[in-house]
Each structure stands twice: as C-alpha cells, then as structure tokens.
Amino acid sequence: MTTPGNTASRTAAHTETLQFVGGLLLIMALGLNLRPLLASASPLMGDIRAATGLGYGVLAWLTTLPFLCMGAVALASGRLQRLLGESRGIMLSLAAIGVACALRQLSGTGTTLLSTALLGGAGIALIQALVPGLVKRRFGARMPLVMGLYSASLMSGGGLSAWVSPRLAEIGGWQLGVGIWWVPALVTLAGWFMIFRRRAAPPPETAAIEGVRPWRLKRAWLLALYFGVINAGYSSVVTWLPVYYQELGRSAVAGGRLLAWMTIFQVLAALVMPMLAQRQKTADRRWLLGVSLAAQLTGYLGLIFMPQSLALLWNAIAGFGLGACFSLGLILALDHLPDARAAGRLAAFMQGFGFMLNAMSPWISGTLREMTGSFIAAWALLAVVIVAMLLVTLRFSPKRYAQVMRDGVK
C-alpha cells in the first residue's frame, strides 16, 4: 500500500534526480563552449596566415591572449562574482564568447581576430573561474566525477571544433570555420537563462571564508605553478600540432583530424581519471598525476623522435596525459579545503596564475619555431618541464593539507 509519506519521498527523490541531471548537462554544455575559440583556428592557421599576413609569432597571440585573459579574470573572479552574481556572470560570459565568434565570422582582419581573442577569452576565463566552486557547492561528494565530466566536455569542444572547422572552411571559407561557434554559445545561454533565472542567489560568504588569502599561501603559489606547467602543453599543442604535421607534409584537414584524435583521448582521460579519484578512499592524487605526467612525457618524446611512423600512438598518449592533468589539477586544488567557496577561491587563484603561464607556452613554442626552423625544440622543452613536475608531484600529500593551508585563514 502506498502511503503519502512514500509518495512524497519518491517525488522528492525524482525531483532531486532531475535537478542533478539538469545541472550536470548545463555544466557539460558550458565546457563544450570553452575551447572552440582556441581550437577552431589551429588547423586553419595556414589560411589565416595567407589572408591576414600575420607571422607565427603574432598568430600565437590568438591562443596567448585568451589564456592571459583566463589568468587575469580568474584572479578577479571573487569581485566579479560579488558584482555580477554567479548565474549572471556565466550568462554574460556566454554572450561574450558568442559575440566574439560571430565577429570572426563577419570580419576576417587581423585586428578582429586579436580583439575577439581578448573578448572571448574574458568570457571563457570567468566561466572557468566560477565552475569549480559551483560544482563543489552543488554536487558535494560527487565533485570528482562532475569535474571529470566538465573537463571531458571542455576537451570535446576543442576536438570537435578542430575536426569540424576545416570542413566548414572548405564549404564557406576559413571565417565560417572559426566563427560558427556562436551557435552553441547561444543555445547554452538560452538553456542557462531558462533554468536559472528564478534560482535564488547563493548564500553570502562567511567571515571565515572571507579570511582565506590564497596569495599569502606558499601552497597556493605552488599549485598555480604546478597547474600552469602541467597544462602548458595543451595551449602549445592546440596551436601548433596541426601546423607541425602540415610542415611534415600533411594537409590542413589531416592536421585537424590528428588534433581531434588527440582530443578523444583527452576526453577519455578526463572521464576515467576523475572516476578513479572518486573511488579512492583518500584524497591522495599523486599516483594518478604521476601516470598522467608520464603519458605526456612519452607523447612529447614520440613527437620528437618518431612523429610520422607512429603519429596516432604518440598523439593518443599525449592527449591522455593532457586531459588527465587538467581535470586532476582542478580536483587537487579543491581537495585542499573542505569549504566549497574557500576551495573555489583557491582554485580560481591557481587557475589565474596557472593560465598566465599557459599563455606563454604557444608564444614560446612559436618563437622557438622561428628561431630553429622546427617545432622539435618546443616539444623538447615541454618534455623537460614535465620531468620537473613529476618531482613536484611528490609534495602533494593530503595528510599535510590542513597544515599547509592553515596560515591562509584567519
């Protein structure tokens, strides 16, 4: 016999499930919009260079500027969130991404490309700064899994755009290839508006949370350095990998296909590694990070010594390492503090300076290419810094999190 109490319990459980699924889908949709601005231009660099006359060093800024924005906006995300609110900030960010892509479709000048890199980069940056704290607050113990799905969708957006954009360029020119990505931004903006327009604002920060000062913590600076370096390969790869293979004799479509192939394994890693983290009895992520960094190192060495004969293998291994490091890096920061807002502030600080380091990677790689005539030096530099980060990983013992974070809270 069904009782009113049982009916109410089932209704509440059903509502909770719908809210979880709806929130998860929106988080994943946000992730899908965060990389097409960067990745869509990569396989079309040759066409862009021919149309605009921009050199390798200037073209690198199409990736460098968004990453600089990611850093600067992440550092200011606390003030921006208080000024705009969480939902409004995300909606304005989606609008900025959509407008930036639409302008690229309308105008193909070098000035437009660089200015939209700034505009879209600011939108990407604010979303990336807000999502970790939002996920920890809304999903609680499911945080590693949800962060993995978010990271996977982020990587998927990059791979999808790298695969689709050259094909669209064959139909309507390179401007269509780099500009069409205003459509998913608009769709996601509409979905976010419909679901969250009536949601109440999150509770104000407590005095204890206000007392968190990441910039006063040595651990926060270490996390920023670590996150920046272990993810530096992504910004270089997404910018120059198709160009590297075009210089080895492959077409723009083939270069974009390789980047998309790499992204499949980034997505796989972004799903699998957080799932393994979710199943851990402790918050010790060191062995997962070690495996991920070793995969990156193997991939870079393959790009140096056997780029043609085993191209699919090296790109797959490097992609797995890159995808895992991004999601695990975010989880690592969130593990350091139990409070969602305090952890979100730490993650935003880490991303702020980390993305500024990321921003220099494609520029350094492009400069090395111009100096040496090959991208081999760029892959070698990435391999060296990954070896250094393998040693740094040993310092992230969860038994010391409370101690190393204590001095940052009043």
Q: What is the succession of H and E elements?
A: HHHHHHHHHHHHHHHHHHHH
Strand content: under 5%
Low-confidence stretches: 203-210
Question: Helix segment count?
Answer: 20
Q: Give the class from helix and strand content and strand pairing.
A: mainly alpha
Major beta-sheet overview: none
Shape designation:
globular
Radius of gyration: 21 Å
* Overall residue-averaged pLDDT value: 84
- Whole-Å distance between the termini? 55 Å
List strands and helices in order, with pairings.
Elements: H1 4-32, H2 36-39, H3 45-52, H4 56-59, H5 61-75, H6 77-84, H7 86-106, H8 110-139, H9 143-172, H10 174-179, H11 182-196, H12 207-210, H13 218-230, H14 232-247, H15 252-279, H16 286-305, H17 311-335, H18 340-372, H19 376-393, H20 401-406
Helix pairs in contact: 1-9, 1-11, 5-8, 5-14, 5-18, 6-7, 7-8, 7-11, 8-18, 9-15, 9-17, 13-17, 13-18, 14-15, 14-18, 15-17, 16-17, 16-19, 17-18, 18-19
Provide structural commentary.
The chain starts with a helix and ends with a helix. Mean pLDDT is 84; it is low at 203-210. The chain has 20 helices and no strands. By secondary structure, the chain is mainly alpha-helical. It is globular and about 65 Å long.
Q: What's a quick, concise take on this entry?
A:
This protein has 410 residues and is mostly helical. Helices cover 81% and strands 0% of the residues.
